[in-house]
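Hello Y.,

Per our agreement to keep a running log of every chain we model this quarter, I'm adding this entry. I've kept the format consistent with earlier entries: sequence first, then predicted structure.
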Amino acid sequence: MKKLYALAGALFFGLALFAQSNVTFMVDMNNEVVSGDGVHLAGPFGADGYAEWSPNAMVMTDDNTDGVYELTLVLAGAYYEFKFINGNDWPMQENVPDICRVNLDGNTNRKIDVAGDMTYSVCFGSCAACNETSVLFRVDASLLAEGEGIDASGIHVAGDFQGAVWNPGSHMMTDGDGDMVYEALVSFDPTILTDGTTLKWKYINGNDWFFTNENVPAECGDGTGNRQITLSSANVLTDVYCFNACTSCIAPTMVTFLVDMSNETISPNGVHIAGEFQGWSPGANELLDADEDFIYEITLPVPPGTHAYKIVNGNDWNGENNSSESPATACNFDGNRQIIVGEEEMTVSFCYNQCSETCVANPDPADITFRVNMAETAVDAMGLWLIGDFTVPQWQDGAVELTDLDADQVYEATITVSGPSEIKYKFVNGDVDVSDNEESNMSACAVPNGLGGFNRTHDRSGEPEVLAVVCYDACEDCATNVAELEGMVNFNVYPNPTNGNLSISFNALSSMKADLKVMNTLGQTILSQNLGTVVGNSITTLDLTSLESGVYTIQLITLNGQINRQVIVE
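Predicted structure for the entry above:
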């Protein structure tokens, strides 16, 4: 009889795994200008005829005309990743804040664990409802575990995000990856705070005030034992400090940074390093060139772990005689460099703005003409601007206005560019100091800037150049010209699906320079290939056998625009 009971239990468990749940996805678009192509949900949802990770298959609807778009799917109990798209293609995907995406510094999808009927509701591009603030609290409990131990009731966080009365047992923290760093994502209305921006809290080893709770030093608190920060955005990530301390639990590692500045004119303000490990202060830690060989050096204590940083040729983020690195794409992590520090002393060497240890000579200064088609976007009364890491000063402070002298809706600006071969830039329609006016939907052909947006890139030759026309806030020229390009090039990929050996054919009616890119569903470039000048019938191959199974975009790039084809790698 016991065997029968055991079999019945196993059958019940198996059926539970295949149970279907109604999951309603809701995204509030009241803070966005909704695309005329609609709002879509993309993810690995193959049920009911939906294509996996299609940016245009799963249409969300605003049935209540309240600005909240919804879609209900029937899903098996499992872990899923997904994103919302304000439009019907990947360049219009949302930028998910790091604190509520799959990885803090990696996979940028949203995530959900389906375990029964449920609703997932957020503001587009945020971690909570619109006008709410989200904070990912983090505390290192490794020394606590070695000492008195983690209480059976768990570690909790309490603070004025709970209102006037702090509750020590209502917000439990978890350690999903077993690294002894406990986390809790909390969302709240910031108006509940005394001044709307100052947040105070503390961690508790237990779920009541009778248990051990923190009494941190004033250097990271409010002077009364509570932790304190000033909220600077709607999505905040706290530092990982040791329980009841203002520092890491792990002893720091001595790291020597060697930076080749031979391509640069050294700022009279000196050369400095700024990063997560020193509070992003651009003037606090100066590198020195003791033997005058243009190799600047500094040794700093850095906590073990992964850290973002960059070099500043000066001592401030902007202004006269100051400029910060814009690392080349191969070593660019959301606009910064990245270092992984272990427990042994280490040395890192690199050229300013480059990825190599020693500097490659920069191309000669040369004129570059930037062109953007505004046929689909009304030009703001405050003008249309170009900002980049090559203007003097960099970015907004050195903005260059574009003009349309021949009234063809293609705006242009020609400037002399010097410095590294790879440059980064974007167009701004209106006041350059308002981030909402910047381009933001061209992620498929750009790199993250570390501020939630993207920058275009170009490898300059050192000769005068006229760049291809692009549509504002897009990767290619406006739709009419893309249609013309489709008529000029018969572009095909096969077999599709493919086992990884992909053939690409095209019949170019006229001679043109072309490149190929392979991009994943996040718009990240996986492979690229320069085709040189093509004309007539041509066939080339791509080896995709190293890629994981999934949907990829093959992009043909020419001076006349770009054409995309989707391919499934099995």
